[in-house]
Specification:
465 residues; alpha+beta; Immunoglobulin-like; eight-stranded mixed beta sheet; four-stranded mixed beta sheet; 33% strand; elongated
């Protein structure tokens, strides 16, 4: 009985096996005349590599709704089936493994988010940290290992692309890029960050132009960086406009020197020496990345620049001076040789035979000179233990002084502040210092600008972009 049952099971299994058919792929449904396949190839400016990206496709016209939010690997998307018509297309490249950017882009919901909402809200992004240098949290969001840079395309008339109906997958995939009739489009992206470097031309650049001293131990870091970026570039006509581009256009020049107005929008970096991104200024340039920063109303507090720190050693300094009380006159200046790194005391006014800019190395002698500059009719010098020399002396601790160097030309040869002083994405800004006018500021985060608010500097440099 058991043998008969086993024989029946084997025969049944064979019958089932004989009736099994080979699975064939289900053919795609025929294209509706208004349907088509589309493919996008992404290229990068500046020799960067496109490793991956996020494709965002919005309907053009009144609805502007998002139709596709698609991640892709490599430098092109697969063929995508959609309805013919005009589209606005944006790509943010090299975003894989950048969770904060990926999370932001995930907020673009197909069928819900409009192009306006994406451009005005979601595309605006605050990088982690704000100092543009390798190794800083800034790098986690925008730059990895100095080479994988987040990139995006620009908002311009070409962002509206017309999808032709009836194009099959085979026609689309076989077409060369930029063959619109076959719906094969190329989108160009550029890095969302700029690259800046500083160097000096040669040893002669380290003697101040007034021939009063020498500079040594030069280093630099960035100040005035934009705290936000746009993942896709915004344009005002042809001029790039970064976040806060026209925010201060109605601010009176008298208020443009108030740090409180700008602190939440622009980052001045950690003070020396705490900044994690300090670079040497030498014959060979060292570079770092920074966010795009343009403004219709540039001033010292909203403009990206290099803060340069140097040790100043004067050619001539006073060990002491005498004061002829009957004649109210300084006399008998005793000169002293100065060792680099010595703390300096420099007069900020002149009077009674002592010039503005006289440098002392002895604190007591400097305070005495400041007291007599403030009180020229004094009959004697009292104990100066509680005397405040502010307004009459600058103190350079360790001989250190500071300069600001702006990466834009700053010469008003090109109309518009955003062009003159702006730092634009994908720019490679190089400043080669030719000379320093004189000793710099005794403090780093100083504000020095023209009456109209535009920044000033005391460095002659050759700039290139």
């Amino acid at each position: 009985m058991n043998n008969l049952l086993l024989f029946a099971c084997v025969c049944l299994a064979g019958l089932v096996a004989c009736r099994k058919t080979t699975q064939r792929p289900v053919p795609e449904s025929p294209l509706h005349p208004d349907s088509a396949y589309v493919r996008f190839t992404v290229t990068a400016e500046g020799g960067e590599t496109v490793r991956d990206g996020r494709l965002l496709v919005f309907r053009d016209g009144s609805s502007q709704l998002c139709e596709f939010n698609m991640a892709f690997n490599g430098d092109h998307t697969p063929a995508i089936r959609m309805i013919s018509g005009a589209r606005r297309v944006f790509v943010v490249a090299n975003v894989a493994s950048r969770p904060r950017i990926e999370y932001a882009l995930d907020q673009v919901i197909e069928g819900q988010t409009t192009a306006t909402e994406f451009l005005n809200d979601i595309s605006r992004f605050d990088p982690a940290g704000h100092v543009a240098g390798l190794g800083d949290p800034f790098a986690v969001d925008l730059v990895v290992d100095g080479e994988s840079v987040v990139m995006g395309n620009a908002i311009d008339p070409q962002s509206a692309m017309n999808i032709t109906g009836g194009v099959t997958r085979e026609q689309c995939e076989a077409a060369a890029p930029d063959v619109p009739t076959a719906n094969s489009f190329t989108i160009t992206v550029k890095p969302v960050v700029a690259q800046c470097s500083v160097s000096y031309a040669g040893p002669s650049a380290l003697t101040t132009a007034d021939n009063a001293g020498e500079l040594s131990q030069l280093v630099w870091t960035l100040r005035g960086q934009n705290r936000s970026i746009f993942l896709v570039q915004r344009l005002d006509g042809t001029t790039p406009c970064a976040p806060y581009y026209n925010m201060f256009i109605n601010t009176p020049p008298t208020e443009l020197g108030d740090p409180a107005l700008f602190a939440q929008y622009f980052y001045n970096g950690a003070p020396y020496p705490a900044s994690p991104n300090i670079f040497d200024v030498g014959l060979a340039a060292q570079s770092c990345y920074t966010t795009e920063n343009t403004s219709l109303t540039p001033c010292a507090l909203n403009t990206t620049c290099a803060s340069i720190r140097a040790v100043y050693t004067p050619h001539h300094a006073y060990a002491s001076v005498d004061y002829l009380f009957g004649q109210q006159m300084f006399a008998n200046h005793v000169a002293v040789n100065v060792t680099p790194g010595t703390t300096l005391y420099r007069t900020t006014v002149d009077g009674n035979g002592l010039p503005r800019g006289a440098v002392f190395t002895d604190r007591d002698e400097a305070y005495k000179a400041a007291y007599l500059l403030k009180n020229p009719a004094a009959a004697s010098v009292p104990d100066l233990g509680g005397f405040d020399p502010a307004g009459y002396l600058d103190v350079y601790v360790g001989g250190q002084c500071y300069y600001r160097l702006y990466f834009g030309e700053g010469d008003n040869s090109v109309a518009g502040g955003a062009v003159v002083f702006g730092v634009h994405r994908a720019g490679r800004y190089s400043a080669i210092i030719k000379s320093f006018d004189a000793i710099g500021s005794p403090v780093d985060n100083f504000v020095e600008q023209q009456p109209d608010g535009k920044p000033t500097e005391h460095i002659k440099a050759v700039r290139s972009k």
